[in-house]
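Protein in question quoted for reference:
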Amino acid sequence: MCLGKYKESGAIKANARHLGRGAVRHRETRFTRPRRALMSGDCEPTTSVGSASMAQTITKPSGARGPVTGTALVSRKKRPFLVDIYSTAVGKKYAMAISGIALMGFVLFHMIGNLKMYLGAYELNHYAEFLKQLLYPLAPKGAVLWILRGGLLAMLALHLHAAWSLTVMNRQARPVQYQSPRDYEVANFASRTMRYSGMIVFSFLIWHLLDLTFGVVNTVGTQGEFVREEVYQNVVRSFDRWPVAAFYILANLLLGIHLRHGAWSLFQSLGWNNPRFNAWRWAFATGFSLVVVIGNISFPIAVLAGIVKV
């Protein structure tokens, strides 16, 4: 045998004696190569089956297998279905789209209602009183209006939180900024400025409420006091101040940019973005934003031009 080319060490002989007695002990198999080099025709060093089995070490698990990671020890508490969906980026985009649709409906019908200003003081004031009497006397006077306002505030809060949390998730996914100039071939001006236009529009909304709803910054009504029932007079006196009118026009132009991109992207967020409908989506987004913006900025322009006056 070719094994004769090697000398067994004392460890092999000791293993053989123990195997003969019926006890199996595993020790390292070592061979010492003879001093002379292998000649042509000599066999390569091999080990027998018995020696190979002796060289193997068999270990049996002493107990149950432990967890692979430390997180396996923590049992995750099951969350409500909607909360679990909202924790994902897809869920936040759905929330932005749905809340955006509700806010779009509000700005459209709000603009349509304010068009009654061109019909005179009686028509606009009567329209405001009609809103307070929704479902009256089934519901208390003004209750339904405040419920609608609460729903709109909830939609606005959801829209803002979803936008903010998506921004945080994007930054966490890429903590290192781009080192080369960004390629804005696909992203247009509206998509790149959505956060800034949204913050300006939100600031305008706060001013608008303080001006025409609560009268905090509009105390130029009857006898220098704000009278909430005089909606037509409050609007005219407010837009008579050109800084307020200019801010109103600027905010609505930014609102139009925000609406155009939002109306376009909401279809993509909801999965309704078949390329065959892209032309229709673009026409809808452009037309919707133009109607809202033209209608809204016409109010301060009409007051400054003297078309609408007290």
